[in-house]
Amino acid sequence: RCSNQHHHTVAWYENTYDVIIIGAGVTGCSVARELSKYKLKILVLEKAYDVAQGASKANSGIVHGGYDAKYGSLKARLGYRGNQLFPQLNSELNFGFLMTGSM
Fold first, then answer.
1. Which of 48, 53, 86, 95 has the smallest set of CB atoms within 10 Å of its CB?
2. Taking 80 as the threshold, does the pLDDT of residue 7 lie above it?
3. How many CB atoms lie within 10 A of CB 63?
4. How far lies 84's CA from each of 1, 30, 40, 58, 88, in Å?
5. Dihedral sign (CA 34, 21, 79, 91)
6. How many CB atoms lie within 10 A of CB 54?
7. Is 31 helix (H, G, I), strand (E, B) or coil?
8. pLDDT at 2
9. Running DSSP on this structure, what letter comes out for residue 27?
10. Of these residues, 6, 7, 8, 64, which one is catalytic?
């Protein structure tokens, strides 16, 4: 026979997560995707009815090359690295990335 206290313990444990990500925009979903490569129990919380409905929805879709930022700065290094990751991400997720160059 199980006591009520035991049921609460089981329910609490089943609803425990290693990581909780607040926001299912581009950043939140990207973090969740990367963390899903590990043996982690992940929960993504979003207040909207679907993903990418907040700031991500208004994103222009421009992938910056990293060359506008000061040479050698963290912003330049991360911008360049992020730009280089897009073709591989597109091959895995098929979101329609086109490399059109700068205007």
1. 95
2. no
3. 16
4. 59, 16, 27, 23, 8
5. positive
6. 15
7. helix
8. 43
9. H
10. 64
SS3 call for 6:
helix
Instruction: Report the Cα–Cα distance between both ends of the chain, in Å, rounded.
Output: 71
Q: Which two tokens stand for residue 71?
A: 């040479």
Which residue in the block uniquely carries the two structure tokens 């909780």?
20
Q: Looking at the chain, how many residues does it have?
A: 103
d(CA 31, CA 33): 5
Residue 24: burial class (beta carbons within 10 Å; 0-12, 13-18, 19+): buried
| Whole-prediction pTM | 0.69
Distances (CA, A) of 92 to 47, 66, 71: 27, 23, 30
Active site annotation includes 6: no
Q: What is the largest CA-CA distance in the chain?
A: 71
Which residues is 22 bridged to in the sheet? 45
Query: Residue 13: what pLDDT?
Result: 59
Closest of 102, 33, 97, 88 to residue 61, by C-alpha: 97
